[in-house]
Amino acid sequence: MTSLSFDNTLLLSLAGLYLILVVASVVILILKKIKPDQDFSELSKRVKSWWVLVTIFTLAMALSRNVSLGFFALISFLALKEYFSIIPTRRADRRVLFWAYLSIPLQYYWVAQEWYGMFIIFVPVYMFLYLPMRMVLIGETRNFLQAAGTLHWGLMMLVFSISHVAYLLVLPAKDGFPAGGPGLVLFLVFLTQFNDVAQYIWGKLLGKTRIIPKVSPNKTRAGLIGGVLTTTALAVLLAPLLTPLSLPLSVAAGLLISVAGFIGDVTISALKRDLGVKDSGTLLPGHGGVLDRVDSLTYTAPLFFHFIYYLHY
Amino acid sequence: MTRLLRFVFYAVFVRLTVLVVLGLNVRHREKLPGRGPAILVANHNSHLDTMVLMTLLPLRLLPQVQPVAAMDYFLRNRVLAWFALKIVGILPIQRQRTGRGDDPLQVCYEALENGRILIFFPEGSRGEPEKLSEFKSGIARLAGRFPHIPVVPILLHGLGKSLPKGEALLVPFFCDVFIGDALYGGGDKRAFMQALQDGMDALAQEGHFPPWE
User: Fold this and answer.
1) Which of A5, A11, A93, A260 could form a disulfide with A299 if both were Cys (CB 3.0 to 4.6 A apart)?
2) SS3 content of chain A, % helix, strand, coil (to 5)
3) Distance CA A7, CA A176 (A)
4) Domain, as residue range, for B131
5) Which residues in B lie closer than 8 A to residue A85 (C-beta atoms)?
6) In this complex, which of A81, A89, A90 lies closest to B174 when CB atoms are compared?
7) Is A91 in contact with B171 (Cβ distance < 8 A)?
């Protein structure tokens, strides 16, 4: 097992992250004292799940690379399980679902092997072709298309997309870019989560015009714009520490993450609205379970990964 | 030794399986009994039902908890019987009356008198996945005999998908566990059965459970 040596910039950024979390927790405490009539439970739950995530993340990174990969695989598993539990599945497809779950260890194994070619086609090509074949062998044709479609969408969102975070982790450090893969992961995950909160807070403060009231009534134009600007500003600040990106490209990365994060968020909202479930789980406190924590990441992870991969690898 | 094995089985193996591989969505956990004697009543679709119910209670209660299970099924060979009796810790009962005046629930009476918490599946058998069959009235007799002991209805959903009857392959799904208000026997048996049925129906209404086809 290759243990990740924490370089100084990464250590510094992690320390900064903990500082932000402490500040956020204190601010929420003060807000609760000053405005006892307002409800901050949403925000405080989010910060609590951040504490959990960041601590697990630090531990996983400090122990070894493979522990971190296992951690991301576990997230994929929990999210996929939540998804399979809330969508209508067919009784005939029990074994097909089992194969779908099995794709998780395989997909993360390709990552651990740094086998990029397999990593990038395994779910979109092989699983895409295999699962319907397995369904045909079972022989139930009623709702075949719906089942094949929903299973594959889940695999793409929750296994393929999320595994891009893991592949970021195994990208090597380079000259003038000592933080390497862990730096990129920290940059992506932190900005994605920060963007969620920033959009939420800007929306609460200034939000009026709703963008997509049918899908997500809480999303406002001011929230989106405020979030995009704050996240991009933070991206510019963090990029020299954690990424090899130049100034203009770090602006582009900030815009990419903040806009994609918004889209990922509302995509999962649309799914839940379609199914008639508000909270899809209760493992982490906050508004829902794992699916709600990784919603933005399903869009930001593959997009940021290919952005970096194209430019620097 | 077997007590230690039983503890390890439930504390490590069952908890990991139930909490990580399956995952529970528990509502109204506060309605669970804090000590024995008590009766937990649940619908039955899977062998996992017992495991989930055992996980709901704190480990310190483990020595007191006994799932009531069919003798003819679980004691059919020696290995299974050892596992069922010593590790799972079932309270075996006969599903059919053998003779006149011979009450199959006699062992349950004794267990409750000893302060045990019983896990009871009034459907009698696991049945079709994710479907509720009719409750048998044994539970009303049990409750009627101990009117001060709470009978807690628990609705389980999702386990029939994970491990239905006749399947050996476990497929992970989140499991919903809804706990209802305790009922007490002592009055009319038919009224008790109706109240129990109504309690389960009310719990089913809380969830969003499309039929599984």
Assistant:
1) A260
2) 80, 0, 20
3) 12
4) 2-206
5) 23, 158, 173-174
6) A81
7) no
- CB within 8 Å of B81: residues ≥ 6 apart: B74, B75
Residue B213 lies in a domain: no
- Residue B212 placed within a domain: no
Q: Can you tell me which residue has the tokens 């963090």?
A: A238
On whether the CB atoms of residues A2 and A64 are closer than 8 A, the answer is yes
Residue B89 lies in a domain: yes
Q: What are the pLDDT tens digits along chain A (313 aa)?
A: 344 555 677 787 788 888 888 988 888 888 788 877 777 776 777 777 778 777 877 877 777 888 889 989 999 999 999 899 888 888 889 999 999 999 999 999 999 999 999 999 999 999 999 999 999 999 999 999 999 999 999 999 999 999 999 999 999 988 878 888 888 998 998 899 889 888 988 888 887 888 888 888 888 999 999 999 999 999 999 999 889 999 999 999 999 999 999 999 999 989 988 887 765 544 444 334 788 888 999 999 999 999 999 999 8
* Total domain count, chain B: 1
Shortest Cα distance from A221 to chain B (angstroms)?
33
Q: Quick one: B136 exposed, middle or buried, by C-beta within 10 A (0-12, 13-18, 19+)? A: middle
Q: Strand pairing of B38-42 and B117-120?
A: parallel
CATH code for the domain of B46: 3.40.1130.10
Name every chain A residue with its beta carbon within 8 A of the beta carbon of B174. Answer: 81-82, 85-86, 281
Residue B211 placed within a domain: no
